[in-house]
Amino acid sequence: MIDIHKLKAFIAVVEESNISHAAVRLNMQQPPLTRIIKGLEEDLNAELLVRLPRGVEVTEAGKALYQEALTILAHAQAIPKRVQNISQGLEGQINIGFTNSVGLHSFLPALLRNFREAFPRVSIHLEEDGSSSLIDSIINEKNDIIFLRKPAPKGLGLTSLHVLDEPLIVALPNNHPLVEHEEVIQLLDLEPYDFVLYRRLAGQDLFDNILASCYQAGFSPKIVQEAPRLTSSLNLIAAGIGLSIVPEAIRDFWNKQIVYKPLKADTACIAPIYAVYKEHIGNVRLEHVLDLLSSHIH
């Protein structure tokens, strides 16, 4: 293994084309520098320099070593700064997970955009999945932070931070009888009608939230179709198969053949969003995300 100090000495000799001048540049005596060069040649079993009456000339092997030495030194000089950046959370990777319905809310892309602007050298890995899988990913430290529609279960050592409450609204086929209803629809008024819902396996938190709102209003929804994704349920609604209760942000993604109306009930119809994470000593990138997230919490 070649000592980095020997490489620095060799670079000086090559660039000065003279051992005496290189010794002055390195603030050392000529004999020790000469021994270093000879030692390099012995280590590599190659002639690196040709001694001339007034200086030295680099051999082909010496030129190859010179280029490699420059690369090694540049990398070595960059190590302290990179280590410092990592320790300060200015480089590395942050892993963020979210459910499908959370990913449709504008707060998430705004958070990601602000993070990229503040920490451009930190890469962001995103993962969309169901809430159970995402919670496992936090426990197993695959993700640093996840966004769900309900707090994490207690007893798992996870922190749940309430980010916002998103209103739930009703999505109706444009030929539905309730389209002509007054602007705000009472949740109980939906009882007679067929429902299309986002499949529970894929969106457990939102599914359970909607059912809980209906139960609290005094009825159990008649579900005639479940969709694999929240956005795909809109196709079924537009086809007239049924109505649905959706987060307010969904209205920005589809308005053809669908009419959206606000909901009202004795208990507020909302779909909250929570940030869930595990407390980590030294996870500075997570701390940066949480600092930015605080600006979205009112």
Structure description:
- The chain contains ten helices and twelve strands.
- It has three domains: 4-87, Arc Repressor Mutant, subunit A (Orthogonal Bundle), CATH 1.10.10.10; 92-163 and 272-294, 3-Layer(aba) Sandwich (D-Maltodextrin-Binding Protein, domain 2), CATH 3.40.190.10; 166-271, 3-Layer(aba) Sandwich (D-Maltodextrin-Binding Protein, domain 2), CATH 3.40.190.10.
- With 298 residues, it is of the alpha/beta class.
- 31% of the residues are buried.
- Strands 3, 4, 5, 6, 7, 10, 11 and 12 form an eight-stranded mixed β-sheet that branches.
- It is 41% helix and 25% strand.
Task: State the gist of this model.
Helices cover about 40% and strands about 25% of the residues. The chain is of the alpha/beta class and about 300 residues long.
